[in-house]
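Sample 3 of the quickstart, ligand pyridoxal-5'-phosphate:
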Amino acid sequence: MTDTLTADLSADAAVRADDRGHVFHSWSAQALIDPLPVAGGAGSTFWDYAGNSYLDFASQLVNLNLGHQHPDLVAAIQRQAGRLATIQPSMANDVRGELARRICEVAPDGFEKVFFTNGGADANENAVRMARQFTGRRKVLAMYRSYHGNTATAIALTGDPRRWANEPADGSVAHFFGPYPYRSPFHAVSPEEETARGLEHLEQTIVLEGASTIAAVIIETIVGTNGVLVPPPGYLAGVRELCDRYGIVYIADEVMVGFGRIGEWFAFQAFDVVPDLITFAKGVNSGYVPLGGVVISDRIAAHFDTVPFPGGLTYSGHPLACAAGVATFEVFERDGILERVRDLGTRVVGPRLREIARRHPSVGDARGIGLFWAIELVRDKHTREPLVPFNASGADAAPMAAVAAACKKAGLWPFTHFNRLHIAPPLVIDEDDLVRGLDIIDNALHAADEHV
Ligand code: PLP
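Result:
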């Protein structure tokens, strides 16, 4: 293994050969991809076998909140592996119990139970199952422009093109429009109007779908891969109110935004709202060992005191994953991670991206919170025509590919999706590296300005 930045071209060729020979990759036409062989990483940087290093501004799918190779997480996994590598979920285990307790301690009052899963999709899958069992209803409402995972129900909930090829999916899902102030589906002209019209639209959807048939509404607290859509003031509180009025379970999908991404344990805590079920994964242990779960409100948990919950997974609450989760809590508390994210977001990233948006003709909008941001690239700031069309691929996507290539050439690994560049570095990134990364993005955007 390469643990420092040195070129090793024969290792590069060997990794490429095995990968292209035998690894079947996600979401891709296999003959058209060229995955980067990664040799190692540390903190907010990773490097390849050819001697190039990259600032990781995507945190490996917004997952690696504590960065690459965090020594505390690595040590916790090693210690646990030496003690008890695995144990079935129907037995009790110290790190599993400790992690569940610590999650409940940072959740709102009235959440005392955690069901562990292997990742985010199956967390959503099981949250929906709980809501259906609890309400005796079947239908679930989910937003267009959302991603909830790639298992049967989770992909059915998903409101983006990843669902299309997987249809017909779980038929008991209906989609609605969430708020998107920059491209308002409700033709609203202010955040207040966006909230009011968005809630009116959701209520109409509930009424027309039949309130008595709806088990749950699932919402990414801040929509992630579909655009870093921060809900306007009052929207989530209004969703809570509608759920209460119609007896519907409110599931907050916190898979991408939970555990510090916006400077809160759970993102909904910044919006003064309390859901009924909270799903999480990724940041809970920075994905060092797969882990996700559902935090369950007492009201719903009590339903399963005497009625068996019909679900389980062999790896539920895997000790190696939970040990990394406990270590995550220790690092967050010791190093003041939540405070640092809030500070870096308001002092460094927000002002710089807004300044970039003012200066670059191709940047139509900059939005976000904490270390979770997106800029939206356009051909015309006035009409807001996207730089590349929705669901662009091939030649259509070339202008965005040029921006991504310019970032990589300058040593930054970007997260681009359709006409957006997302900014989501590890929460432990040095301030100097953060500023250097924003400088790289600033320069790379000239490749987009050419298309204005
Ligand atoms: N929910 C959200 C909001 C996500 O962003 C993701 C993954 O990116 C998922 C669910 C699915 O998580 P996983 O890939 O761990 O199944």
